[in-house]
Amino acid sequence: MNSETVRISHSPIDTAAETRAVAEAASNIGAVVTFSGICRADEKGAQISALHLEHYPGMAEQEIESHVEEARKRWPLFAARVVHRVGRIMPGETIVFVATASAHREAAFAAAEFIMDYLKTSAPFWKKTEGGGKEIWVDANEKDERAAARWQK
Predict the structure, then answer these.
(1) For residue range 15-61, what is the model confidence (pLDDT) as tens digits?
(2) Which domains does the chain possess?
(3) What are the DSSP calls for the chain, one per residue?
């Protein structure tokens, strides 16, 4: 796997360029599945003016890489890519981009969902919302935890 498989970025994510890179990774790709998580302007009825994401440099990349490797063991992937923003993110901006490529859609969909479920529940990121004059730290929610639990062996 190359060094571009997992990247943490303070800059906006160019999802079109990331998708092209994954699609061009192998000649026998029959399916590319992408997911882009976007910063909302509302969280459970509360206005959000910005989202702040923090991470542990080096460790975050290594942890995400290990889950991408697990996806490669479970499904026949030609390529996988995760780009995750950190810093201050405004509503409408992409927070996370996940792409998987395989010969067939089933593997690409399942692997992308597996990676995303991990990112939502266990990746070493800390998220804080800003809005209405308040800052609130956000935990993984029960729905995300249930989604991730289905992948347990």
Answers:
(1) 999 999 999 988 899 999 999 999 999 877 889 999 999 999 999 99
(2) 6-149 (3.90.1170.40)
(3) --TTSEEEESSPP-HHHHHHHHHTS-TT--EEEEEEEE--SEETTEE-SEEEEEE-TTHHHHHHHHHHHHHHHHS-EEEEEEEEE-EEE-TTSEEEEEEEEESSHHHHHHHHHHHHHHHHHTSSEEEEEEETTEEEEEPPPHHHHHHHHTT--
